[in-house]
Amino acid sequence: MRPIIIGIFAAFFFAFTFVLNRFMELSGGSWIWSASLRYIFMIPFLFVLVLGRRNLKPLLIEMKRNPGKWFLWSFVGFGLFYAPLCFAAAYGPGWLIAGTWQVTIISGSLLAPLFFETKQTVKGPIKVKGKIPLMGLAMSLIILLGVGLMQLEQANVLSIKTFMLGVLPVLLASFAYPLGNRKMMEICDNRLDAYQRVLGMTMASFPFWLLLAFYGVATVGLPSTGQTVQSLFVALFSGVIATVLFFKATDLVKGDMQKLAAVEATQSFEVLFAVLGELLILSAPAPTYVAWIGILLVIVGMVLHSYVSNKEKGEWKKSRYTAESDRYTEKEADNMLKVADTPKK
């Protein structure tokens, strides 16, 4: 139960991104500053975190090894992810952006063939080209249906141009985020932990955020004190606290596929928290019953997708004892799987 509670708290802090970005937009702040200030403010927080874990030197060595790749994929994973999300906040409520953002699960699945996975077999580790998880993708249709219902409500009150400006940037972000992060994980090859990668990617993408900030000064002027403070809260709540909580929750259930699926599914609560946040903070109108049905479908789809995806991983793990060798019966494979998953004291 504890990992589930921690996962829900992580979703709560992640939701601050969508609510505060919308608040800043409605208050006259520019999406340019909402995007750039978050990552500029994240650097000192993450720096202290990684330095406290005594992991700063290995990160700097790793970045020096492939500076070009760090700049490229950090720009894709962070720059083309967060800037479009902030831009979309100007054209739709936070809960709508949060709901549409769940499409990233589908985007991540479609990117699988671009990467190789390391699989452990009875003959040792092998490199296998990723495959699109068809069962998980089928569950994703529920998410798409939910997103479609939420967007349908907005389409009735917005022009096609405004509607597209609020949707297409989120779709771009949904592909850029998993692509950039997976590429960086591939480049690091398990030599860095998640905290080091986030700090490294934030530092490597800093030139982009700096250029965006200069563009903001030239076009909209300096940010207001209110937007600066709110961007600081987004950096702290979503960029640092939510990430740490989510990693903590997944670490607690590492090795248990069903519990891991449940923790991952808690992130669908971002949509609900975004709705509640906008109702309380922005006094925004409540979603219609059609939009509520869409939100419910997104949450159900998230839960089913997470469960099916992790079940498929468990089945593959079992197959390493069955399909790879005819020495093991199915019962023996089950026993070996239990032994392999038993934590070592």
Automatic annotation (TrEMBL):
The chain crosses the membrane at residues 5-24, 30-50, 70-90, 96-116, 132-152, 158-177, 198-217, 229-249, 261-283, 289-308. Keywords: Membrane, Transmembrane, Transmembrane helix. InterPro entries: EmrE (IPR032713). It comes from the Bacteria. This is Multidrug resistance efflux transporter family protein.
